[in-house]
Design brief:
Layout (H helix, E strand, L loop, with lengths): L1 E10 L2 E10 L10 E7 L6 E4 L1 H9 L3 E2 L1 H7 L2
Parallel strand pairs: 1-5
Antiparallel strand pairs: 1-2, 2-3, 3-4
């Protein structure tokens, strides 16, 4: 099954996440199919950018969002 989830980037104590489409059997930071956005929780404003068109495409073909991605995207 394909999942829309976050993969951790950045350095120690300064996380930065990419929102990616990946196979659910892969590891968190393993290979992914497509990167559709990012989330930066550090700073005054929590930056989030998602390509809505690509996210809607992946949802239409059966991908599922993880609970964390659902919470930060507001879907």
């Amino acid at each position: 099954m394909t999942k829309i989830r976050m993969t951790r980037m950045g350095r120690k104590k300064k996380p930065f996440y990419r929102i990616v489409v990946t196979d659910s059997r892969k590891r968190r930071d393993g290979g992914w199919i497509e990167s559709i956005g990012y989330y930066n929780p550090i700073g005054e404003t929590k930056d989030i950018k998602i390509d809505e068109e690509r996210m809607n495409y992946w949802l239409s073909v059966g991908a599922q969002m993880t609970p964390t991605v659902k919470r930060i995207t507001g879907k």
